[in-house]
Amino acid sequence: MASTEGVRKVLVLDFGGQYAQLIARRVRECRVYSELIPYDTPVEQIRAANPAGLILSGGPRSVNEPDAPTLDPLVFELGVPVLGICYGLQLMAKLKGGRVGRLESAEYGGATVSVVERGRLFEGLPADMACWMSHGDSVLEAPAGFVVTAQSDLLPVAAMEDREAGIYGVQFHPEVRHTAYGQELLKNFLYRICDIAPTWTPVSIIEEAVRRIQAEVGGERIVCGLSGGVDSAVAALLTYKAVGDQLTCIFVDHGFMRKNEGEEVEATFRRHFHVPLIHVRAKERFLSKLAGVTEPERKRKIIGEEFIRTFEEESRKLGKARFLVQGTLYSDVIESGTREAAKIKSHHNVGGLPEDVDFDLVEPLRMLFKDEVRVVGAELGLPESIVWRQPFPGPGLAIRIIGEVDEERLQILQEADFVLLDEIKRAGLYRQIWQSFAVLPAIRSVGVMGDERTYAYPIVVRAVTSDDAMTADWARLPHDLLERISNRIINEVPGVNRVVLDISSKPPSTIEWE
Ligand code: XMP
What is the pTM assigned to this prediction? Predict the structure, then answer.
């Protein structure tokens, strides 16, 4: 758990449900700070974190299985209100002496739930509500001392509570949008039952982060690798706000950024924020290292390695810095315990940590989700072009140039990519699409321009929709937009005579080509 003294928080105990993370996000949307913790976190640790409320998430198991995840019953004795959702409800029913079992069938999808006893949880909500259900077991009988507060055609106990003890439970999922008044129900729990005020705002996040950075860094020097993306930008600005000129940002520009992007990042930071910044223009260095290299993993390794060496050289010139700012997000923190996926590509996070460099880490975004980072970035005054920038791989355009990377091919791709993004933006699709970019394959084809035969490169248009880059689908771009993209690229970019569209999803393809 993060040390967030002074911030009133709600802890979500994760029983493995698919919506556990979503619960934490919904609570945060109510402007209440929330963290996800493992269901078996020792009760003393929970007490020490001083939560203002606890939520038990759903989970895939049955509470009647012998080794099903359970809860230390002392959690109910902490004097902190508890809301159980789905498995959380069933577990509290079982632990308190109620009966949990199978009804005739499992229930997945929408259902109407009727409030039979309003209480504080359902205050101000309609008597009948459309709710989202996703459960195998159900509470058949509420424990003694509990009042059934809602039912449905199928469920004798759709919600129950022991008001005296501050224990509440619902079978449906208030965190899912299909539950019409789910957010209102969560607000009732947070504001009325836990008595928390909605004070966790972008301004308070910034103030808290600044205080923490100041406490961590003291009077020491600190460096930050800027990448042009929103995470490293927000991390840098928060740090600058905290420790001013003790921070130096190092922007290693490998030359594989999009057209004009390197200069734009520099201008933004110098003009608007006056952040001390070293802009290392290292295109020649990276190009020479990549000469003759065509194998994708080798390219990635070389760029990653060269990046680290450049970063080290620059930070050494500054004298010894003790700290390094890192843009780690909360989703990385949550995932890091379980991330065992097979390595498909060796990712290189340019804004991130050179692994073998000796720094203490400062991670101001450790407790924030990506969308929260964007809100904080906007509040700090970052321009939209950075706040809403589509994800961009660390090795940049070098892994979108198939085969050898050289100056000529880099320029072709930069120009084509610029036209493509310009058209996507004009069509108002830039934010809706997860990523949209051009790829330059290592083949040429015959065309005719004017009366001349051409033998030139094609450009591949790649545009995908996605929630998290783990899976993706190709974006159905309107045909007239594709026509404009194709016409403009062929007319405006010398060296290109054909445009093709990538219509593959991930899996089995990946988003990038290398
Ligand atoms: P793939 O191609 O594996 O990409 O489907 C998934 C997401 O990761 C981005 N990507 C990277 N991001 N450093 C990064 O920070 C990298 O080396 C890197 N390689 C790919 C890619 O753009 C997509 O969003």
Answer: 0.85
What is the domain class of 9-193 according to CATH? alpha beta
Which amino acids bring their CB within 6 angstroms of ligand 1?
344-345, 347-349, 391, 393-395, 435, 469, 506, 510-512
Phi and psi, residue 28, nearest 5°:
-65, -35
- Per CATH, the number for 401-501 is 3.30.300.10
> What atom in ligand 1 is closest to the CA of residue 392?
22
> Ligand 1: distance of its center to the CA of 349 in Å?
9
Question: Which CATH number does the domain 202-387 belong to among 3.40.50.300, 3.40.190.10, 3.40.50.620, 3.30.465.10?
Answer: 3.40.50.620
Question: Which amino acid residue places its CA nearest to atom 10 of ligand 1?
Answer: 393
Angle at 267 between CA 262 and CA 271, to 5 degrees: 160
* Statement: residue 318 has pLDDT above 60: yes
d(C-alpha 312, C-alpha 252), whole Å: 10
What's residue 358's pLDDT?
75
Once rounded to an integer, what is the mean pLDDT over residues 436-465? Answer: 97
Structure confidence at residue 148 (pLDDT): 98
Domain boundaries, the chain: 9-193, 202-387, 401-501
Distances, alpha carbon 130 to alpha carbons 84, 125, 182, 232, in Å: 19, 11, 9, 41
> Is it the case that residue 274 has pLDDT exceeding 70?
yes
Confirm whether 9-193 and 202-387 share one CATH topology: yes
Residue 326 has pLDDT above 50, yes or no: yes
